[in-house]
Amino acid sequence: MMGWLPVALLAVPLLGALLLLISPALLRPVLRGYGLVFSGVTLALAVTLAATFDYTQAARPQLTVDQPWIPGLGLRFHLGVDGISLPLVVLTALLTFLCFVYLSWGDARAPGQLLTPATGRPRALVFTLLVLEVGMIGTFLALDLLLFFVFFEVVLIPMYFLIAIWGGRGRRSAAIKFILYTLLGSVVMLLGLLLIWAQTGTLDIVALSQAHGAGMSRGVQVLAFAAVGIGLAVKTPMWPLHTWLPDAHTEAPTVGSVLLAGVLLKMGTYGFARIAIPVLPEGAVVIAPWLGALAVVGIVYGSLACLAQRDLKRMIAYSSVGHMGFVLLGFATLTTVGVNGALFANVAHGLITGLLFFLAGAIKERYGTADMPSLGGGMLATLPHLGAVLTFAAIASLGIPGLAGFWGEMLALLGAFQPAEVLPRELFLVFMAIGGLGAVLTAAYFLVMLSRVTHGLPARPALSLTATHSAPGGAGAGPEETGSGAAESRPEALAAGAAESEPEGGRRPAEVTETGSPAPKAGAMRDIRGYELVAWVPLIVLILLFGLWPKLLLSLTTPAVQTLLGVLS
Amino acid sequence: MIQQIHYFVIAPPLVLALAAGLVLLLDAFLPAGRRTMAGLGLVSLAGVFIALGFVVAQAAQGGRTLATFCVPDALARATGGSGPAGSQEGAGGTGLCSFVADRFTLIFAGLVLVAAVVVVLMSMTELAGGGIPVGEWYFLLLCTLVGAVTLPASRDLIMLVVALELVSLPVFALTALKRYDGRSSEAAIKLFLVSVVSTAIMLFGVSLLYGVAGSVHLSRIGAVLSGASPPPATFAPTLEAAHGLPAVVTVGVVLVAAGFGFKIAAVPFHAWAPDVYQGAPIPVAALLSVISKAAGFAGLILLLVTALAGQAATWAPIIAILAALTMTAGNLLAMRQRSAVRLLAWSSVAQSGYILAPIAVASRPGASGDALLSGAVGASVAYLVIYAAMNLGAFAVVMTVSRTATRNELDDYQGLAFRSPMAGLALAFCLICLAGLPPGLAGLFAKIVVFRELVDGGSGWLAVVMAVNTVIGLYYYVVWAGRIFTPTPPVTAARRPFPATWVAAGLAVALAVVFSVAPQLVLDLATAPG
């Protein structure tokens, strides 16, 4: 068997992180290649995993490793992949690799590329990202309740530092909010997991899924589902528990936002598919209508919140709330169609929103702000390629047929049209109607965004300058004049300087003067650069691929979903 | 009648006591100087290591429980009918022994002695600063250790009280040894008053228990109070008339619990902790937060689980509420602290709450020997062991920082990771361990063990309270850890190396790392097989 593959998937990034800790001085000169190599090897392993995966047996866990780790807790080092986790593992490895590509491709002196000593702490950044990758991949591979929980927690500290060190201006409070919120969810989830353990005496997810809730009374299942569900819902995030997300996304650096949206949110939804629904089917039936209700509220709320946003990153963050609403609605239907849709939407959201955050980061680095009115429109004229990719990503996100965003939402709504027999159909029809309305609103806010940013006339410098003064993110007005005045003479340098000092925030008072000042001339900005193109093209290709050929993913998840729903379907 | 003393059993405290005497003699007769100072430290260290060697040797004896100071068979039969059958098998004789070295004892003794190594190493740095009489310091330190090693082995009330006093009394003096320091004196007075009051309260409770049960031996008290053994003739009417136990037993239980509550700084007897921790020299604060606390917990567990197992209905709810209050108060107050040591003080109060929580569900009747470590109590002990490693690591790093930053506030830790990467990483690791998040897996697993016992024992509400507290705790730990990695304009502070403290920190952090990778080590120790 190829049981070493999942272990290697975890060991490679971990080894990379540890080596960095042991011999910092030795690795300093090769740091850019270093992260690229380790995440590249991990991606290669993930691809090998996908290649060796037996697609005829997608329903059962394959390539398993099962070793006792802590017998005293009944915790086993139990890893494996099946049709549900395989796409997510590959997605994680891919996004991490693309993040490293984004950071270190080319001469790595461009604004978004934080791996230059000037922007500080390249070693710490590589270390953080590699540890983050261990946690993310581990969560998707774990087949033991406590092991799942451990990996679920591993991501918290690196993500905290990613936001708190390399984030924007409000980074500290955003990071604290992120970690406290998600930890609160996690400990509640831990109690739920321990309740399952106390009732059944096992932590083995495979055995528990096959038991379909045997050995647990209905009341226990409902309680456990609620506890586990709350923990997962915070991470997902579900509507009333989402408030950490906009701040975290807005303040995180580009790679942080990409991984947060692309992978971390998936850990929550994955938990529903892996633990909550298969292990606690009776609890799922009782809670599903509530889950569905909160999901559609999330869809509508997310869309309405998006309409009200000025900040591009914040808008994309709120759009995640809406999209995750569709995913949760899919799960709530408890049907093969709905859950399939949810899992599809999951992966699609990872690709599309990952791309959107890359774009938002690129825009923020060029303009020095992500405030939409300050951007001033006309991007298609000034930066045609960037504008085109933004349009593509926005259209993919709003769910145009033919792109990846469509199928997940469609299947989730279809699932709601015909939910599992144990669920009240009328209620789910209402959910479907509201969800459909949400889809329209989604289209609305993305089109409004496009009309504001990509279309229209390019703003004149004077206009954009005034706009920044009123913008909440604008640094003090006085020094800004000098900042842009100086920049007139060296237009190229400003774009770089402004963005470079951006992650430093208030730490270097000398450079803050330039922070946030918009580029005076559009001509000063460069269109898509090499490193950006390399990082984005794979995402664009995959969005097209899954949009045109959804069966690729659905054939993988369908058997697994049928097994996990078991008695319910 | 000649009492046979099994010297091998009492070797660990005996060695420590001899070392204490030796230190005092050497201090008196050797010329004062830097070399004597280091020499005395090394003698203390050697004493601790020899004692540790004896503990390991006792552990290597296998499952055999060693005991001494036993009541001879004939005497026991003459005074109180049959000894409680089966409660102390393997202990030799009747089972009424005052000093027992079973797994429970050995774990606590090992924990105390390993922590003592760290504390002695930290002391070397502290004393190098001058101003503190060296001989007295090590003498008092070793005396405390004698008590801390004796306490978990005590199986009768008198031994328990004496050992507890032996732990407490030298600590007042240690706290006050930094002469002409206002804070230090204040701390010593506070500690003294609180401790004396708590001792008085506990003695009252102990005397009530003795009065009712007619025996000082814990297992015998347990047997009498749970009705397994007939009560002594004098008290029989009282006990029978009430159809059960008189209210005086409840009073005794509450008073004893309150007495130990002071030692472990549980709410409502927690207020002394931050002032004393801050005023005392840092090694003493570390000692208070680990060794003294471990001794307090050992005594509490012994009394509640061995002697008062039958009264669980009385004390289990009290302990549960105290645990909930303790962790909440500790965490909430820790959030407001600006001084590193005060923060650690409150955090250690909160951690006391976590350790206390499983005891609330540890109501198993007839516990003895290894049963002391079954399930819930095992969870407490495991948590205590892991807590000791991570907390000592934090204190050791705080100690190195205190050398350069006299006020020792959280702001002084800004950018520690850049000035001194090893110290920064070590402290961050310990803090994250205390918070219970990966990569500090030791703390995470310790919490999981406790959570599991609570959920399993049906104390869901306590588990939820603890869950919320974990989040509150995370806030201040993570904010502090965040400061460590926040760059500051480079300050070139004149720094002296503190090799001893570095060894101490290294030892504690290494243990925390080992526990993170292989928590099974602790769980194996702390949980009885089967």
UniProtKB/TrEMBL annotation, chain A:
Gene Ontology cellular component terms for the protein in this record: endomembrane system; membrane
Keyword Transmembrane helix carried by entry: yes
Domain NADH:quinone oxidoreductase/Mrp antiporter transmembrane: 142-418
Pfam family, one: Proton_antipo_M
UniProt GO BP: ATP synthesis coupled electron transport; electron transport coupled proton transport
Compartment(s): Endomembrane system; Membrane
Regions of compositional bias (Low complexity) in chain numbering: 468-500
Transmembrane listed as a keyword: yes
Region (Disordered): 468-521
Membrane topology: Multi-pass membrane protein
Any one GO molecular-function label of the UniProt entry: NADH dehydrogenase (ubiquinone) activity
Keywords: Membrane, Transmembrane, Transmembrane helix
Residue ranges of the TM segments: 6-27, 34-53, 84-103, 124-142, 148-166, 178-198, 218-234, 255-277, 283-304, 316-337, 343-363, 383-407, 427-450, 530-549
Family to which the UniProt record says this protein belongs: Belongs to the complex I subunit 4 family.
Protein name: NADH-quinone oxidoreductase subunit M
TrEMBL record, chain B:
Spans traversing the lipid bilayer: 6-26, 38-57, 104-122, 134-151, 157-177, 189-210, 247-272, 284-309, 315-334, 341-361, 381-401, 422-446, 458-479, 500-522
A Pfam family annotated for this UniProt entry: Proton_antipo_M
EC numbers, comma separated: 7.1.1.-
Entry-linked InterPro entries: NADH-Q_OxRdtase_suN/2, ND/Mrp_TM
Swiss-Prot/TrEMBL GO biological process terms: ATP synthesis coupled electron transport
GO-annotated cellular components: endomembrane system; plasma membrane
One Gene Ontology MF term: quinone binding
Catalytic reaction list: a quinone + NADH + 5 H(+)(in) = a quinol + NAD(+) + 4 H(+)(out)
Ranges where the NADH:quinone oxidoreductase/Mrp antiporter transmembrane domain occurs: 154-473
Compartment(s) where it occurs, according to its Swiss-Prot or TrEMBL record: Cell membrane; Endomembrane system; Membrane
Membrane topology: Multi-pass membrane protein
Enzyme class: translocase
Main location, first listed in the record: membrane
Subunit structure as annotated in this protein's UniProt entry: NDH-1 is composed of 14 different subunits. Subunits NuoA, H, J, K, L, M, N constitute the membrane sector of the complex.
Role: NDH-1 shuttles electrons from NADH, via FMN and iron-sulfur (Fe-S) centers, to quinones in the respiratory chain. The immediate electron acceptor for the enzyme in this species is believed to be a menaquinone. Couples the redox reaction to proton translocation (for every two electrons transferred, four hydrogen ions are translocated across the cytoplasmic membrane), and thus conserves the redox energy in a proton gradient.
Family classification: Belongs to the complex I subunit 2 family.
Protein name: NADH-quinone oxidoreductase subunit N
Native species: Nonomuraea cavernae
